[in-house]
Amino acid sequence: MEETAHELTVKQYVEQQRELEREAREVLPYSFDTCTYSMGYLKQPLYACLTCQKASGSLNAVCYSCSISCHADHDLVDLFNKRHFRCDCGTTRTHSIPCNLRKSVDECGSENDYNHNFEGRFCICDTVYNPETEEGTMFQCILCEDWFHEKCLQKTNKGIAIPDAETFEWLVCSECSEKYRDHLLNQKHESIAGTERAPLFLSENFRENLCPCESCISLRNLEMPMLVAEEPIYEPPEDSEDGISEMNEDPSESGEMIEQVISSTMNDVLRILDRLPRVQANESVYAYNRLKSELTDFLTPFARENRVVTKEDISNFFLERSRISKNLR
Q1: What backbone torsions phi and psi does residue 122 show, to the nearest 5 degrees?
Q2: pLDDT bucket at 237, cuts 50 / 70 / 90
Q3: pTM beyond 0.85, yes or no
Q4: For residues 148 and 171, is the Cβ–Cβ distance under 8 A?
Q5: Cβ-proximal residues to 27 (8 Å cutoff; 6+ apart), any chain
Q6: A cellular component term (GO) from this record?
Q7: In whole angstroms, what is the distance from residue 192 CA to residue 318 CA?
Q8: Buried b (16+ CB within 10 A) or exposed e, 191-215
Q9: Which 3 state secondary structure label does DSSP give 68?
Q10: Could you tell me if 8 and 36 are in contact, meaning their C-beta atoms sit under 8 angstroms apart?
């Protein structure tokens, strides 16, 4: 029988499922099975949970893993990297609901700092960030870690257009340049922030030009260590592909190998889909999970004989399943 647009062998079906799995791994490249709470205070990717804020009345942020494993169906704001922060999942700041990964409720991080970013608002304009409608580039201040619109930076820069993004590596916002002027002394002991309030646009090697005297180094180490050395950023380990079975390329091999791949691939795909962040179709995923066993049993004979699966075969499978379901009511 010649294959049509509606026909495929089980092996081809499995290959299609494996491709979907690879695409899912590209969306979620990191493992999300470990909460960072026990690691203490880190510079790490964070997500503010607005849903838990409404319930607890407290600002919060959760780590990458918890944003997926514990807060996937909540209203989250991507805060990107924030320094010296301990995950708030499973604390009073997230309504004292146990973390799904730690299975516990613990004390919230007393050293965590919060600003208007944790409410979903950014920049001196205090605008709610919407990634779907946001236009233009935003830049993060190396000191306060707030994000600023290019047009707003220009306003604080006496109306002068900011330098091309390719010409600087770091931003110090106008408020921080004024607040931390004494931390930004050059080798002549003059503040690189100048005397007027304005943003600073620093090169990658700006630290080499800061004052090296013992007093200045001590001050920076004590209050602004990010001016001394670039901070390490925690990243979750990459999700391994151990769960992806190797396809048997030899069609003459026993169909049992393909049958095993079907089962393995279905489990892998379901596992990834079930854990995708903020997926709105969870009910469909769970329904598909219940179908796995029946569908595997149905496809096994096709796999063993390397037969094509037609659209009619699949339709008959679901019609029969529907008939049985009605008889059981």
Answers
A1: -140, 165
A2: confident
A3: no
A4: yes
A5: 276
A6: chromatin
A7: 72
A8: bbbeeeebbbbbeeebeeebbeeee
A9: helix
A10: no
Report the chain's C-alpha Rg in angstroms: 27
Helix axes 282-305, 255-275, angle to 10 degrees: 170
The β-bridge partners of 200 are 172
241: pLDDT confidence band, cut at 50, 70 and 90? low
What string of DSSP letters covers 296-324?
HHHHHHHHHHT-EE-HHHHHHHHHHHHHH
Residue whose structure tokens are 């004979």: 301
Residue with tokens 């000191």: 143
By the 8 A CB rule, do 214 and 207 touch? no
Cα dist from 308 to 6, 10, 287, whole Å = 10, 7, 25
Give the pair of three-digit tokens for residue 56.
């607890």
| Position 279 pLDDT exceeds 60 | no
Q: Which amino acid is at 239?
A: D
The residue behind tokens 């010649």 is 2
| Owner of token pair 């807060």 | 71
Nearest C-alpha neighbor of 239 from the set 8, 23, 5, 32? 32
**CB-facing half-sphere around the CA of 285: CA atoms within 13 A:** 15
Could you give phi then psi for residue 268, rounded to 5 degrees? -65, -50
